[in-house]
Design goal:
Layout: E1 2-5, E2 8-11, H1 14-21, E3 33-36, E4 39-42, H2 43-51, H3 60-69, E5 73-75, H4 98-102
Antiparallel strand pairs: 1-2, 3-4, 3-5
Helix pairs in contact: 2-3
Length: 110
């Protein structure tokens, strides 16, 4: 399939993308991402590997648009990580109290 990324035409195929990304360790996802195989890669990392261009030269949207047309699943936002409100307070997550969270006196169970 012919697609344009950073004003340059590329001939991309699904198998070609799979081969190019084989053995590549995904960077941490902070924005748009693409699921290739069992891994989730940042769109900019995929674009950098496929086009061999600097990621500042293209947008994540250009990459996700091309990957969607090839049948890959694309995501707008990273998966939300669970947040432990008791972290750093010395209170186990299951035993948090309102006083520990708010810094006030008294054991009020949440």
């Amino acid at each position: 399939m012919r697609c344009v990324i950073a004003r340059y035409p590329f001939e991309l195929t699904r198998t070609g993308v799979l081969d190019s990304m084989k053995g590549v360790k995904p960077e941490p996802v902070t924005g748009a991402s693409v699921t290739i195989g069992r891994r989730r890669y940042p769109a900019k990392q995929v674009g950098r590997i496929l086009t061999r261009q600097d990621p500042r030269d293209f947008t994540a949207g250009e990459v996700t648009r091309a990957m969607t047309r090839l049948g890959f699943t694309c995501h707008d936002q990273p998966a939300a990580a669970p947040v432990d409100l008791g972290a750093g307070l010395g209170v186990p997550g299951a035993l948090r109290t309102a006083s520990a969270l708010l810094g006030g006196p008294g054991p009020v169970a949440v």
